[in-house]
């Protein structure tokens, strides 16, 4: 039975504050030690360790890690043309959206001095795609396409194999259509370690992106600094702000679209309409019956689902900013009047026909989004995540001379005589001439 917890704001401010404080990514249990042991083993023993953990955790002893051309061909034989057609539409939309994010080199001049910035793509990126029994071709598209749009030359995919030692065919086809040539049959912490440090077969990468379970997330945290990572992702979440104009059936369906992800997924409705809240509750119970992942969604809604009643939509928008949701749906009569008030959200879905799954698959914006309130300071995965910037400084003698006293003064104030001397020495005993 669905039991959606109901709170009122500001009456239940304290309980809501506690809920907000409890979100996010927690690392404080025995799994951290296990992950660190796996990473050290892969670092010291390479592929031997990777194969050992693949046998232990995935139940398959592999002869090799690299997916062969034959396996790609077999995957194409197993998927339908309709899937490939939909996949290609997704790739086109995601590519077009992310190409608009590309930055350019820039330079500025003051007299004969020049400063600026040059942009370079990362050389090699690894994308982690969950696997086993499940298929997540959309994760391939959302992690690979922005990297390639940014100019990354080498993008590799890792994904855990099934009990037959194969990668899901939909994942493989998505990888090939997206432009990936290297796919490796490994998952878990051992895959993250292999990408970070390299093995006899796998060349190390500069950055690791993509979602995974707690072991993958802990491993990404552990190797950060050796390589870059996209984020430490927590449970998926959706927050819907709706007034009396909202459709209860639409809202319930959108809440369940997140609840079916994971028992820890968070689905929240904020509304100023008590009648709408009651209707949504009833719709949840009705729609849940038809879901394949009924048990997961039920646990999620019962344990993490929440309806918050507010006095008005303005109070609701304030709560949205405090929650800083991964996915935010704005279902009110005049959404574009409220939109300027929303400061913190990973992705914003406006209107009743902009359901969250639209963003997951086909609209174009990335579905790798900040969770756990990190949308207060973090952004969706984008092309900036796959580039690096170098500052350019070019001064001639007269340019340096014009500010040398200022540099010397600031350096000496900080007690850094060597810094000051590095400027002084260029002018001592030399009469400056234009």
From TrEMBL:
Pathway: Amino-acid biosynthesis; L-histidine biosynthesis; L-histidine from 5-phospho-alpha-D-ribose 1-diphosphate: step 9/9. Its EC number is 1.1.1.23. The keyword Cell membrane does not apply. The active site is at 326 (proton acceptor), 327 (proton acceptor). It catalyses: L-histidinol + 2 NAD(+) + H2O = L-histidine + 2 NADH + 3 H(+). Keywords: Amino-acid biosynthesis, Histidine biosynthesis, Metal-binding, NAD, Oxidoreductase, Zinc. Zn(2+) binds at residues 258, 261, 360, 419. One of its GO terms (cellular component) is cytosol. The keyword Nucleotide-binding does not apply. Its cofactor is Zn(2+). Binds 1 zinc ion per subunit. One of its GO terms (biological process) is L-histidine biosynthetic process. Substrate binds at residues 236, 258, 261, 327, 360, 414, 419. InterPro entries: Ald_DH/histidinol_DH (IPR016161), Histidinol_DH_CS (IPR001692), Histidinol_DH_monofunct (IPR022695), Hstdl_DH (IPR012131). It comes from the Bacteria. One of its GO terms (molecular function) is zinc ion binding. NAD(+) binds at residues 128, 190, 213. Catalyzes the sequential NAD-dependent oxidations of L-histidinol to L-histidinaldehyde and then to L-histidine. Belongs to the histidinol dehydrogenase family. This is Histidinol dehydrogenase.
